[in-house]
Specification:
This protein is an all-alpha fold. The chain has one domain (9-168): Butyryl-CoA Dehydrogenase, subunit A, domain 3, CATH 1.20.140. It has helices at residues 9-59, 71-100, 104-130, 141-155, 158-168; strands at residues 61-62, 65-66. Helix 3 (104-130) packs antiparallel against helix 4 (141-155).
Length: 169
C-alpha cells in the first residue's frame, strides 16, 4: 500500500514504529507463554518419569529384596524428587507471574533455565535406575529420554536464560 501523500513522512514513520512496537510486544508475550507452557509440560513429563521409576524400584528385586530398599538408590530417587518438585515450583511461579503480569521476564527466565535441563537429567537418571532394561526396546525408559531431549530443545538454552536473568537483576 502506498503512503498517503498528504500526510507528512514523519507521521508515517511514527505509525510504522508504533505498529512494530506492538508486534514486538505481542511476540514477547507469545514467547513467554510458550516458555511457561513448555516448562509445565517438562515438569509433567519429569513427574511421570519419576513415578514410573519409583514403581519399578518397588517391583524389581535384586539379592532377594526390592532395589528401592537400597540406600544408594533411595538417595538418587530423593534427589530426583527434589529436582522435579523444584522444577514444578519454578514453572508454577512463571505461570502465576504471567497471569498477573508482574515479574514475568524474571519468572520465565528462571523457569526456562531450570526446566530446560530437568527433563534430560530426570530421564537419564531413570534409565540408569532401570538398569539394562532401561536401554532396551522392551521398556519405555529410553523413549522418555528421547522425548526429554525434544522438550529440552523446545524449552530453550539454559545459558541464554541465565544471561537474560543476569541482565534483569
Amino acid at each position: 500500500m502506498l503512503p498517503d501523500p498528504t500526510v507528512p513522512a514523519a507521521a508515517h514513520r511514527r505509525r510504522r514504529q508504533a505498529e512494530a512496537a506492538g508486534v514486538a510486544e505481542a511476540l514477547d508475550r507469545a514467547t513467554q507463554e510458550a516458555t511457561v507452557a513448555l516448562a509445565i509440560g517438562t515438569v509433567g513429563a519429569c513427574r511421570a518419569i519419576f513415578e514410573r521409576t519409583v514403581e519399578y524400584a518397588k517391583v524389581r528385586e535384586q539379592y532377594g529384596r526390592p532395589i528401592g530398599s537400597f540406600q544408594a538408590l533411595k538417595h538418587r530417587l530423593a534427589d530426583l524428587a527434589i529436582a522435579v518438585d523444584s522444577g514444578g515450583a519454578a514453572a508454577r511461579y512463571a505461570a502465576v507471574a504471567l497471569a498477573s503480569g508482574t515479574d514475568v521476564a524474571v519468572a520465565t527466565a528462571v523457569a526456562q533455565s531450570y526446566c530446560s535441563d530437568l527433563a534430560v537429567a530426570a530421564a537419564e537418571e531413570a534409565v540408569q535406575l532401570h538398569g539394562g532394561i532401561g536401554m532396551t526396546w522392551e521398556h519405555p525408559a529410553h523413549l522418555y529420554l528421547k522425548r526429554a531431549m525434544v522438550l529440552d530443545a523446545g524449552v530453550g538454552d539454559p545459558d541464554g536464560a541465565i544471561d537474560v536473568l543476569a541482565a534483569l537483576l
